[in-house]
Amino acid sequence: MSLVTGTLVLIGIFTLCGLFSILAGMAGWDWFFTSVNSRMLTGRMSRKWARIFYIVLGLAILTMATYLYMTLPVK
Predict the structure, then answer these.
(1) Is 75 contained in some domain?
(2) What is the pTM of this model?
(3) pLDDT per residue as tens digits for the range 3-13
């Protein structure tokens, strides 16, 4: 696997994770916010602040994906 291919795979993973985080924050899915992994991160926050946190986290992940795409070496 070349460096460009690996970077493209990473960009795809970041994009999917970022979109999923934003969707979970916007939709307020009960199954998402009551899971053990989610409660470890947002256990002391109210649901409103946890949703805002996940939206901001998703935007940060999408920003990382965009940065990786913009700095991709062109052959």
Answers:
(1) no
(2) 0.87
(3) 889 999 999 99
